[in-house]
Amino acid sequence: MHQPKAEIIAVGTELLLGQIANTNAQWISEQLALYGINIYNHAVVGDNLNRVVEAFSQAHIRSDIIIVTGGLGPTEDDLTREAFQQMSKLDVSEHEPSMDKIVRFFKERNIVMTPNNRRQARVFKGSIVLDNKVGMAPGMIVNFENRTWIFLPGVPREMKSLVANDVLPYLLQIIGDKAIIKSQVLRFIGIGESQLEHEIKDIIDGQSNPTIAPLATDSDVTIRLTARTDSLENADKLIESSKQQILSRIGNFFYGTDEQTLEQQIIDKLRASDKRLALAESLTGGMVTSKLVSISGVSDVLTGGIVCYDTKVKERVLGVSKETIDLFGTVSEQCAIEMATNVLRILDADIGISFTGVAGPNVSEGKPVGTVFIAVCTKNGYQQVEQFKFRGDRDTIRNRTALKGLQILFNLLKQ
């Protein structure tokens, strides 16, 4: 097969309604790209027989490899088999090994098997049946009219198991040697997309392999490096060369690659320096603490956090002096410093960070919406406080404050 065109069709109304995200297509695309299989289309179609048949018919015309996820379950709205049978006129039969596995599943759990579960064992005549080792419905590979159709369950862990163990080895056989495509994402914080692009514009303009694609997200700015070559080793070399060239310009803003998060990096650096952190959060209301405790192993480095939204809590629990509040207000540099210093002492930490400000929608203490103070203090006497003016609605201001706090922590810890 010469430079096959591939596409992915996800079947399921829940995807169209936004109840779940179509992460399957993203993951499959990434895997196939490593082997030079280009994905030309992603499609999502609801649980409607006529629409699924139409989507399959269009895919059959334009693509060499069609991967379908979902619609293989036992219920009436699982229509993938029915739609492909209507389009292809291929016979369907019950696959005895799959049926035995389904019966055994219910018997071992002492559950009555309803008749509709037999649907899951139905396969197309002449298909390659893929044993679903983590679920019940088998996958299938069907060669029909010079096209390769691959049917996979929609459950991500079942789909991934079948792709890794069966689908990729099969596709490698039929496509032969192809170019390897590999990507790496570089993550930056504290620099905007336009400024980043300006700093490395000549590198972007002069580079074709790897390609360099900047992209702004809600939490950071990324650069995706994508290399195409004849081996993973050469792809790694191309990516590393471009990466070092980019970091020589904007390395001060770099914090990680691929799926690495700022929270994980902070926790790793705290652990490496044998430091413990405490937080005092007013307008963020525990958001920053929550982000950190979502990472496994955080208990090694986080002593705790105090949500001090009310002024009385700042005074009575956190120990901010009444004089400071009367003179400067709770939304002030002085209050932020006391919050950070006191939470460090109260929770016996090495670093304390505090957040206070006006999230809106109303002005507070004469300070406009978006006014934020973030302070950091350390056990050895270091103090840093910064004022920010964030724009946006209440949630946007709180999210930007939390992100800026993580950035400040990361920059402090990488020194």
Automatic annotation (TrEMBL):
Full protein name = Putative competence-damage inducible protein
Q: Which organism is it from?
A: Oceanobacillus chungangensis
Q: Which family does it belong to?
A: Belongs to the CinA family.
The MoaB/Mog domain covers which part of the protein? 7-174
Superkingdom of the organism of origin: Bacteria
